[in-house]
Amino acid sequence: GWSQVVLQSIFLLLPSWFRFWQCVRRYRDTKQRFPHLVNAGKYASTLLVAVTNALRRTKNFDYHQHKLENPFLYLWILMSLFSSTYKMIWDLKMDWGFFDKNAGENRFIREQIIYPRKIYYYISIVLNVILRYVWIINVFIHFNSLFGEFSDIIGFSFALIEIFRRFIWNYFRLENEHLTNCGQFRAVRDISIRPTPKLIKNSRTTQQTEDDEQLTTNGIPLTVINDSQHLSRLTRRKTNAEEFIEEINPILTINKNENYSLDDQIDSMA
């Protein structure tokens, strides 16, 4: 009845309603139209889908024998197509950072990636597009009364599909945030998020020289990672040892097996 439709519609509206006003608040605080107002538009499209769907369901009582004549059915389909396309583009471009014009050899992805195989990214793109439009199945079910008695099972299946899509989405969203927000100090690139098969345990040395003590944290010596991407950013050699260590700190790591003096580490970077 009406009460059930209204109650379900309210619960469907609330998450997008809160996120919409969060984006508006972010715009108010930062005065940045992009991305906050554009992101708010994404949630506004979701609200339109929920509203038109509620109107479609309530009008079905009047068009019970002729569902195809329900005008809100076509409005709901139109809003759903618009919203799904909006969200799909936002997923790929904004949340995942794909289709970067500077991607280079990582075509259709982005310049920097963490996971070892590019096929993972291409599969995720295809899956995200398909799962964003899986609701179209519901349109065909709407016209086939034979599936009416299975509506609860079908709705539950769609919910599981969305959970699976979100599961995939989280991995690449976290990766993009990790790689692109270092400049805003919202992520630290030195902490890897790439899955590792095992942890390498190193024993700690007990004897250290005075020079080593100056280069240690809690008595653990530091050694330089052989990382060409970071080395290319070092344009000149610092004369002051402390300033030099601070500059190359992102490419230093703790090594508990070897002891290097300050001169050895500087010479290895030269």
From TrEMBL:
Keywords: Membrane, Transmembrane, Transmembrane helix. One of its GO terms (cellular component) is Golgi apparatus. The keyword Disulfide bond does not apply. InterPro entries: EXS_C. It comes from the Eukaryota. Pfam families: EXS. Its main location: membrane. It is found in: Membrane. One of its GO terms (biological process) is phosphate ion transport. The chain crosses the membrane at residues 6-22, 34-52, 72-90, 119-141. This is EXS domain-containing protein. It comes from Adineta ricciae (Rotifer).
